[in-house]
Each structure stands twice: as C-alpha cells, then as structure tokens.
Amino acid sequence: VPEINKPLSAKYIKSFAYPTFKERIPAIIQGIVDQLKNKEDIKNKFGQGAYDELDSIINQILDLKKSLQSDKPLTEFTANNVYTYETNAYNKMIQHYTNENKNNPPTWFQTDWLFAECYLYFKLHRIFCFSNAMKKYDPFLQVKIDTLLASQDAIFALNTLLIEMKNKININESEKKKMFTFFLKCSLWGNKADLSLSGGKAVSTNKETFNEMNNLDTCILVSNIDDVYELLCKNEDNVVDIVLDNAGYELFNDLCFADFLIWSGLVKKIIFHGKLIPWFVSDVTTNDFNLTFIYLKTELKSENMMTSVNTWTKYLHEEKWIMRCESFWILPYDYSKMQTESPQLYKSLSENILVIFKGDLNYRKLVGDINWEPTTNFGVALRGFHPTNILALRTVKADTISGLKKGIFEELNSNEPDWMITGKYALVQLLKK
Ligand code: F6P
Ligand code: MG
Is residue 77 within 8 Å of residue 113, measured between CB atoms? Predict the structure, then answer.
C-alpha cells in the first residue's frame, strides 16, 4: 500500500504504478515491436535505409522492455548533440536519486513512478532519434489517427452542435453560461478516451457520449465550473493557456471548447501547449495538431466541418490561437519545479488569466504524483506552483487525488475498488490566484 504523503511507486503493489509497469507498459512496448515487424510496410513508408535498421531498433526496444520487466537500474544517457538540454535534466534526476539512495541508482519498480514513466518515453524516443532513417518516427501515430477516425460519429455530432450554437442570435447571459458549461464538460470527458489505458489500442467514442453527458454530473467529484465562468466574465482581454493532453477525440473536443471561448468573447487569445516528442502514447505533438486539421478536411469532411476548420485556421493565422511545444512538458519534473527549472515558461503562464491542465498525467504532475490524504486542499497539493489561476480538467486514471470532501474517498473505495483508474470519475478543480 502506498505510504501517505509519499510519491506513488511501483514498489507498492497496491498502487496503479505496479500493474502499469508489470503489464500495461510491456504490452504497449510489444505493440510497437509488432508494428515494426511489419518490415515491408516500414520499407514502403520510410525506405530501404529504415528497413536495414529495423532489426537493431527492434532489439533496442526489446532490451528496454526486458530492463523494465527485470527491474534494472535506470542509467544515465550519454550526452550528445540531440536533446542535450532534456538529456541533462534526466541525468541530473538520476544523479539525485542515486545520491539519495546511498549511491544506488534508481530502478524501475523502486523509484518514483512519475519519473520512471517519463524516463521510459524519453528513452523510447531516443532509440528512433539515433537511427538514420527513422528519426522522426512516431510509434503511436497510427493508433492516434485510428482513434480520431473511429470517433467520427461523435465528432460530426459535436461539430453540428457547435455550429448550431454559434448560429443562434441574441443569446442571453444564461444561455451563454449553459454553452460554456457544455463545452467545458465535452473537453473534460473527452479525456476519458485513453490510448495508454487501452494498452496502446485505438478506442472509439460514439455520438451518444455527449448526449448522455449530463447523466455524468454525479461523477464529477469536485466541480468549480461556475467559478471559472465568473472568473472569465469578470476580466477583460483574457488570454488562456491550455496544456493539451491527448490527440484524436479529446483534441477535437478541446478545439470546440477553444472555439466557443473565442467566439463568445470570453477569451481573446488561446495558447495551446503540446509535446515535443511522442509522449504517454496519445499526447498531442505538433504533427498531430497539424494532421488533425488535414484529416478533418479530408477523411472527416462535411460542409459543417469545413466551416469549423476554416474558422480555426483563421484563428491560427490571426494568432488568436497559438500552438507551442516547450521542452518542459517532456521533462521528468512535477510542476512545483517549473519556477526553477523553466522560469521563462512559468513567467509566461503568470502573465495570463488562466491555465487549463488537461488530463490525468498533467494532474499527476500538478500534485507531484503524491499519495495525498484525499481531503488535502488542492492548493496545498500544488506545493507552491501558482503562476496564475489554475484549472484542472481531469478524468481520474491514477491513484492520486486532492480536494475531496470528507467521506467521498471512503465511500467510493468501499463500493468500487477500481474507481481511481477507470476514467469514470472526474475533477474540475480551480485554484484562484
Ligand atoms: O500510465 C499513467 C497514466 O497517467 C495513467 O494513469 C493514464 O492512463 C495515462 O497515463 C495517461 O492519461 P492521460 O492521457 O489522461 O494523461
Ligand atoms: Mg495523455
């Protein structure tokens, strides 16, 4: 059982960290290997050079899997010219853990879950990075695209609603607030579809999802939606940062929410933050962001869809929407370290009215992946990270949580032992500046 107030780790068999390293991640890694074993396909897409390197790449990935499964030490990366800054950050953390542990390097199951899991995705990317012909290879690209296409009914239905709402004239305050609540909840529940939980397999979302959304209100364990709305109404010229989570269906929901925010005048400008490299299976990279637009214009084409995509493209040209991928989001740090490790980013967030953190991993990084007493105040759990107003939109998929009312945790535990890892429950948590 995880100790109270300590970071989660796979050394606790009762933490979700344990099955993650024991089963979930090995299955994800095996999925990548199986994909690469389709050598002819790789050759067609990446050429003979890639084909020739495949055996070596596959062996390195299998070594990584073996190292994880036999709980080997996490070793320092050799410094070279690629991702130098990130490499140093990882090495610094390894040195830190080694010093802390009487000169013994951290191992997969014994060290902090958050660190080891970030290390894994960084290491995986480096394998491709150091190849000649597959430097840019994203092992999760296909599954991200499949998930987008598999959710097309839900995407069409949501887009139609967006267009219909925007076509209404003379909306009053209460209607506007209702729309805000609706799109915020879409963005929230869009996080339920998760390619890491599904073991790297594509998932589909059907169009009933948001018709049924209001029935899910009882599953929102903390809901500060009204306070967020009030905050945006009270201020002018709002600039909002959205730290994105997953590509596919979730990103589409985020774009609809972001469109509503601009259209309604509640927000003047939105800065999206994505990942520099493939991350936690489905996280949005710049390539995913751009590809989404292309798929919406081709495979998911409709008149309404073209209206939306054209509007969004215009937002991007006018810089009402901006997409950025800072390095910090792929470093092994929780967000309490942002101010010292990435002061520029911290400062830029602090200049804006609100930063929205999407999803489970962002929440883990917000609260330091610590096994908090569940009633711990959200602000306390952030341990000094407070650049501006902070909003977490998270479906619960890992065993860390804060800010619950007394008794809720115990009640859920006794009725549904797995409630923290399924994405069935959610949080809309605001910490005001
Ligand atoms: O594997 C760790 C984890 O945080 C899970 O808890 C979750 O399933 C997944 O990664 C990512 O979730 P999200 O995409 O919501 O951050
Ligand atoms: Mg994710």
Answer: no
Residue 214 has pLDDT above 90, yes or no: no
For the CA of 246, the nearest atom of ligand 1: 14
Q: Which of the four pLDDT bands, split at 50, 70 and 90, describes residue 117?
A: very high
Distance in Å from the first CA to the final CA of the chain: 35
Place of tokens 């977490």: 392
Q: What is the band of 80 on the pLDDT scale with cuts at 50, 70, 90?
A: confident
CA-closest residue to ligand 1 atom 8: 197
Res 194: pLDDT: 62
Residue 196, pLDDT > 70, answer no
Centre of ligand 2 to C-alpha 236, Å, is 31
Neighbours of 171 (CB within 10 A): 14
Cα 20 to the chain's mean position, in Å?
16
DSSP assignment, residue 136? T
Q: List Cβ neighbours of 26 (8 Å cut-off, separation of 6 or more).
A: 65, 68, 69
φ, ψ dihedrals at 221, nearest 5°: -75, -30
User: How many Cβ atoms are within 10 Å of 208's Cβ, its own excluded?
Assistant: 11
What is the rounded distance in angstroms from the CA atom of residue 418 to the CA atom of residue 430?
25
Q: How far is CA 24 from the centre of its chain?
A: 17
Q: Flag whether pLDDT at 27 surpasses 70.
A: yes
- Give the integer Cα–Cα distance in Å for 390 and 366: 10
Model-level pTM?
Answer: 0.97
Distance from residue 194's CA to the centre of ligand 2 (Å): 7
Do residues 216 and 189 lie in contact, with contact meaning Cβ atoms separated by under 8 Å?
Answer: yes
pLDDT exceeds cutoff 70 at 200: no
Percent of the chain with pLDDT over 90: 91
What is the distance between the alpha carbons of residues 73 and 57, in angstroms, rounded to a whole number? 21
Q: In sequence order, which residues have a C-beta less than 8 Å from that of residue 245 and are 6 or more positions away? A: 191, 282, 283, 284, 358, 359, 360, 361, 362
Per-residue pLDDT at 195: 63
Contacts of 405 (CB under 8 A, 6+ apart): 375
Question: Ligand 1 within 6 A of 196 CB?
Answer: yes
